Amino acid sequence: MMKNTLHKILAIVCLTGFQFGSLLAQDGSALPTEKEKDEKRIRFNGLGRSILSQNTVTGDVLESDTNTLRQITDGEFLLDLAINATPNKKTEVQSILRLRNEFGGFYGAGVTVEVRELWARGIIADRFRYRVGDMDVAMTPYTFFNPNEEGTVNEAAAFIPFKDVINYEQFYSPNNTRRVQGAQMDFGLNFSKILDELEFKSFIARVRGTDFFTVPTRFTSGGQLNFSTDKLSDSLGTMGKFGINLAHTFDDLQSGNATSGIRNTVFSFNFDVTIFNKKNTSLNLIGETGQSNLTSRRDSLTLSEEDDTFLDIGLKLNLKPQKLSIIASFIDVGPDFFSMGAQSKRVDFNANKTYLNRIGVDDVLRTPSIFDLSRDRALYTFRLSDQLMAYDPRFSNTMPYGTATPNRRGINTTINYGNADDFIEAELKAAFLNEIRGQGTFELKSFTLLRASANFNFHKLINWENKLRLTLGYQYEQTNRGGIDVEVIDLNSNLIEAGLEVELFTDFELLFGTKMLTAKGNEYIPLYADFNNIQDFPSQYVVDDTESLIAAGLRYNFKKGIYLTVQYQSFTSQRGQNNPNNYGFNQFFAIYNMNF
Amino acid sequence: MKKSIYYIISSLAIILIISSCDHKTDIYDGPNLIDRFGEFIVIDSLSQSRTTVDFSTGEDVVFTAKFNKNIDWIIEITGTESGAKKIIEGFNKDIDASNAKWTGGTTELPFFKNEICSVRLTVPEEPDFVDSAFVEITGTKIYEGTLFTDFEAEPGQNIDLGNFEFELTPNSGRKMDGLAAQGETYYLLEGTDNVVSNFFVGLININSTIAGSTYAPLPTYVPEDLFFNCFIYSDGGPHGIAVIQFVFDTNDNGQFDDGVDQTFQIEGDFPLNWVGWRHIKHSMADVNISQAQLEKLVSIRVLLISDKNAKPTPPLQVDFGIDYMIFTQGAPLEL
Questions:
Q1: CB atoms within 10 A of CB B293
Q2: CB contact under 8 A, B32 and A437
Q3: Does residue A29 register a pLDDT over 80?
Q4: What are the φ/ψ torsions at residue A71 (nearest 5 degrees)?
Q5: Is B170 on the interface with A (CB under 8 A)?
Q6: Do A484 and B34 touch (CB under 8 A)?
Q7: Burial A329-338 (b: 16+ CB within 10 A, else e)
Q8: What pLDDT digit, counting tens, does each position of A571-591 carry?
Q9: Which among B9, B21, B29 is the nearest to A311, CB-wise?
Q10: What's the whole-number mean pLDDT along residues B86-101?
Q11: Chain A CB contacts of B28 below 8 Å
Q12: For the segment B221-261, what is each residue's pLDDT rounded down to a tens digit?
């Protein structure tokens, strides 16, 4: 209904005049795009993309299976046309119209036209910023957040084009925002004493519609009050930044004929206190603590209720001349901590894969691989899940739901060195965590996670004007549990990534990339029934897998945001020993991407 | 002032931090892994508290066994003469009085008789495992309730057989062929709607005098609290429908006058689409009879109907048996 109304408003606005300008498409913030002096303008921008790919199946699976397709050619041509209008200096509206044609679609067959994005924003009384329609929202990692996907540490440039497609299609942003549709309101205040700044943000969005029978409309809402203080000590630079956060997801039991629904509330308090900030060194106390509440209701009757707390507190040391920053935190996230807005994953491991969802003699469901995670947008989602989603312990077992993973206690550290302009830019993350409550036993699992990434900008070292860059990533994960035979868990996995970018001529790059995953051992993967309640452990998960993905290709950058890449990728999957369903993919593809 | 603000915020933070590490850890999530995946071992085999039992005096039999883990188990007790079955199920590692006590009831009709019963303990997840025992019943269970009739005694004038269209077979009447759900006798109505083509085949009027008084003695006269129970036997053949009508003595003359006295029945009646005996039960409020009308329940009429809309040409024979008509208070009869 609201979208229809906005359609009409946009149509009227579009007819009032045309002017061309440049804007970034898919802008999810509530910040004004242009300065207020730019009045009454209509601008066009957007994105054009062509993908053509040919995939060939290889491996043992072909010997016994005659049904699986040997070769698939597919692709798409797509144009997202963003129409941005500023009818007056305090209002801005935007619509993105999508025209898409499947590769092989003729004369309208396979062509789709849809509205991809629609919003309006502006300023009320020079005080309040508002936005209605589509918007991107992130609060804190425990309240409302879109945690990063698994299966990658430091993605090689060769794999970036497909990852860019996924990020664009699912509205992922570097700020871990989540795309929702609703309304947003912000305002800020400055103070002359004690407090420095105070900022208030709020939003409400509909994340699910009713089916007019048993499924009620679901809303998610949130509010943040952030404030910072004056310096307590000018010599030390002591000051503090604090935030009070509330995320609330609820079902509207007045919608349809639904009588039962849920309420999930997460309240938190976050802080970043600068203990001292000297010329060469700074030390901060950082963290967040809070509580979640989950209530299941029928009419006004509470059927079940559970709540739990979390704590994330640490120190951040910044050695400025050395370009080194160290964060060491203690985290304690309760087993019953449930935050729909922060624990909903990007990867839906139960989703159907675009390419060969089933394979082999018995038509078995193909487990998502590093190949799928690197290219298949159908596996990704930005939507909220009302129960903990399925995960693959080969990719992530320590924190499959990001920082807000429930039932974890221990130490989490991050060391950063250098920046993008240096010869070496590196990051090391280590987490040593334990379960707080056992799963199927009182014995507790222990987790060790190491993630290291490094970028070597050799062109900086040898003063070459073209880019010569080596990227490395490594993830090691170990899970253990003691006890009697059936309780014992011993699972380890390694994910190795390497990439090379050689700019042979200006804007013309040679790309190499590789990924390799090995996983061996056993685990029990819980099957969640409601929210975070474990219904069963369907079977013992035993794994002895090796996956490898190699890519080589060329990329030509016409200008920033406009490029053409042609690549060849080869993938192999070996699950266990002598598995007749071991398979591989050889893929040749071309992507032309144009932001305009 | 600045320091005060810091102290307030710091105090708040400390309180939150201290309260943030307290979680419920005296349980674990999900099913027990040993129960789910551990090896199954029988620690104590099946045994029972007594080998002969008189349920009529309130005796019971307790079965015991012990496994190394919680697992689904089934105890099936079968009457070697009656074929009655009592099934006790559970998910435990210890089978004992808390979960395996038999007080003489039945799960699948008929009722048990004074007979020897075989007992089998099985575990569905372990198809190779079976343990067995025997129990002899010397007295059957006495069920609570006010019996209307169980057809055991010769009814005499208390039952009128209505074969108005001459469609009932001579086989209709009290039967003592070993099929009774309770005792030795039940009542069979059998016939074909092939004389007068309508729904009706035949009926019996069971006057309340069969229970010893003009109006049926009932444990309560509150319709919502009063439950009617009976057992109906069906051979699963098509088109048969059983109808049970409760007759209110409208004209207060102490006897059933067809067309004068008001009748009440369950909407939809009982399509005879099952095989074997079935426990029929409903509250008297379900037939929309009032307390005053219940106090003058002069008769229960049982009809055999052939579903005219569905039956073929020529019509097929339809039949059913009825046994153990009993009223209970508060809840249906607990088998």
A1: 20
A2: no
A3: no
A4: -150, 135
A5: no
A6: yes
A7: bbbbbbbbbb
A8: 999 988 778 788 999 999 999
A9: B21
A10: 96
A11: 437-442
A12: 999 999 999 999 999 888 899 999 999 999 999 989 988 99
Asked if residues A132 and A183 have their Cβ atoms less than 8 Å apart, the reply is: yes
What is the pLDDT, as a whole number, of residue A231?
79
Q: What is the ipTM of this complex?
A: 0.81
Name all contacts of A450-453 with Cβ < 8 Å and 24+ positions apart. Answer: A450/A474, A450/A475, A450/A476, A450/A477, A451/A153, A451/A427, A451/A475, A452/A153, A452/A426, A452/A427, A452/A428, A453/A153, A453/A154, A453/A426, A453/A427
pLDDT band at A13; cut points 50, 70, 90 = very low
Q: How far is CA A576 from CA A63, A65, A514, A521, B220, in A?
A: 17, 18, 21, 11, 70
Q: Which residue has the tokens 């990704």?
A: A380
Chain A nearest C-alpha distance from B147 (Å): 41
Question: What pLDDT was estimated at residue B106?
Answer: 94
Q: List the single best residue of A407, A537, A539, A540 to mutate versus B (max B Cβ within 10 A).
A: A537
Q: In the predicted model, is pLDDT for residue B1 greater than 70? A: no
Alpha-carbon gap, residue B333 to A386, rounded angstroms: 43
> What are the tokens at B87?
């099934």
Contact in structure between B66 and B36 (CB atoms under 8 Å): no
Q: How many CB pairs under 8 A join A and B?
A: 101
Chain B positions in Cβ-Cβ contact with residue A272 (cut-off 8 Å): none
Largest CA distance in chain A: 77
Report how far residue A552's alpha carbon sits from residue A575's, in angstroms, rounded to the nearest whole number.
25
pLDDT at A277: 92
Q: How close are the terminal C-alpha atoms of chain A, in Å?
A: 31
CB spacing of B29 vs A310 below 8 angstroms: no
Give me A83's structure tokens: 């129409």
Helices and strands: H and E segment counts in chain B: 3, 19
What does the alpha-carbon distance between residue A20 and residue A450 come to, in Å, rounded to a whole number? 49
Q: How far apart are CA B313 and CA A125, in angstroms?
A: 85
Q: What is the DSSP string of B65-118?
A: EEEEEEEEEEEEEEETTT--EEEEEEEEEEESTTT-EE-S--SBSS---SSEEE
Give A461's Cβ-side CA count (13 Å radius).
10
Least confident of A203-212, A242-251, B95-104, B116-125: A203-212
Q: What is the mean pLDDT of residues B160-186?
A: 90
Question: pLDDT (tens digit, 9 = 90+) per residue, B220-232?
Answer: 999 999 999 999 9
For testing contact with chain B, the best of A309, A488, A524 (most B CBs within 10 A) = A309
Q: What is the pLDDT of residue B11?
A: 72
